[in-house]
Specification:
The complex is a heterodimer of chains A (about 250) and B (about 200). Chain A folds into two domains: about 100 residues, Elongation Factor Tu (Ef-tu), domain 3, CATH 2.40.30; about 130 residues, Nucleotide-binding domain of ferredoxin-NADP reductase (FNR) module (Rossmann fold, 3-Layer(aba) Sandwich). In chain A, about 20% of the residues lie in helices and about 30% in strands. The two termini of chain A are about 30 Å apart. By secondary structure, chain B is mostly beta strands. Chain B has one domain: Alpha-Beta Complex (Sulfite Oxidase, Chain A, domain 2). The chains are: A alpha/beta (about 250), B mainly beta (about 200). The complex binds flavin-adenine dinucleotide (FAD). The site of flavin-adenine dinucleotide has 21 residues of chain A, from strand 4 and strand 5.
Chain lengths: ~250, ~200
Amino acid sequence: MAGTALQRRLTWRVAEVVDLGDETPRVRSLVLSVPGWPGHLAGQHVDVRLTADDGYQAERSYSIASAPAAGERLTLTVERLADGEVSPYLAGELRAGDKLELRGPIGGYFVWDIAIGGPLLLVAGGSGICPLMAMLRLRQAAGSDIPTRLLYSSRSLEEVIYRNELDRLVATGTALDVRLTLTRDQPERWAGYHRRIDTDMLTEVAWAPNERPLTFVCGPTPLVESVAESLVNLGHEPTRIKTERFGPTGG
Amino acid sequence: MGFVSRAFKGRPRDQPRDARVPPGQYLVRDFPVLSAGPTPHTPLAEWSFSIDGEVDAEKHWTWEELRALPSETVTRDIHCVTKWSKLDTIWEGVSVDTLLEGVETAADYVMAVCDGGYTTNLPLEDLTGGKAWIAHAFDGQPLESQHGGPGRLLVPHLYFWKSAKWIRGLRLMNDDSPGFWETYGYHMYGDPWLEQRYSGD
Ligand SMILES: Cc1cc2nc3c(=O)[nH]c(=O)nc-3n(C[C@H](O)[C@H](O)[C@H](O)COP(=O)(O)OP(=O)(O)OC[C@H]3O[C@@H](n4cnc5c(N)ncnc54)[C@H](O)[C@@H]3O)c2cc1C
């Protein structure tokens, strides 16, 4: 469980929204310009803090979806929860030019870098794709051919975040395989999976345990628990399975 | 006045803020989970608990021996560094005072050592004097493995990652040294009332 120690002081910074784009009907990406941003690793997150005019504050964590790169730009991708306090503001109210307080990067365990190698198994549910996308974008930007498989569970094709970009990554990248499972609605003649991720699906998609894949699982708690458990039962080394759960309700 | 987020209102706050909720936290009713890897499942027959490190004599318990010690039921508020708090959670566990009875040590710090390779560091005085337990039940039920069962450390006055899941021992140390989460930038102490989330807070 060795890793790089991150012992830098995390100060609040004021970021500016420079661009917004809808990924799905409920999910929006925010491109932020963060003066003084120290850089990040794929998989890390930031804490965002909103302040009302009476001083009331709400803080939540959001994964950095953009690849590590020089400069001050970051992308966050936010799913709007119906009665949520923060996500409807970020993915509904914010406009280009608005300012936002955040600090980070946070987390040093659920991270991947080219030097860490593979093969790589990425398993996502819903917005759990966000930190994994930073890894896929990094891999692409580096022209890496590290064998990589993504298994991504969504309710419907319409709700698949980054769908076009994933298609493009598969078409233009090397040694990347993306499998979708659509748990609620499938288009006609859908040839992919249409059930929750289970052991059989992981047997088909995951690397064999003796290939010692490095695995990142991210999504609602029940998905993360069951995927990690299935992988251990299939013989994968627990220490090579890294998990991140998006609370609070765990979907 | 400092920074204001344009048009952010937040949840209605017609009631005064609950004095039991530390700054930056919000209340949940369910019980979220935070961990870095798969949930370990050590069979109870293979489970043991140790006190070792800077002690004159190590102490060990099997699961049955630990469960035979007197347990206390405590109702406490818990606060996770990921911003949720949960009030009046009911736990049953063996007080760390009970486990440390008769242990001779000059150590000031403790590393909680867990299945799965997790560790977290705490000052010894935060574990003594009725402030910490090895919890084996939550809400009247045996503690689920997802939530750290069979046994987790319960130190409710610190952020909840210090209440290490799947605990297997306390290693006494003369000097403080970062555990698993602390190595990745989380605070060495973790007082929720001072918002000691990350290193430097
Ligand atoms: C490390 C990490 C990384 C994350 N990365 C991302 C990411 O990249 N993208 C992303 O979209 N999310 C991410 N999340 C989740 C994110 O932090 C928020 O939890 C999420 O956006 C919901 O926040 P919210 O304020 O909108 O909802 P909250 O107000 O927190 O509510 C969440 C849900 O609980 C219910 N609820 C909670 N409290 C109440 C209450 N008092 N009354 C009624 N209902 C309540 C709401 O109905 C809502 O559906 C991440 C979380 C973590 C821990």
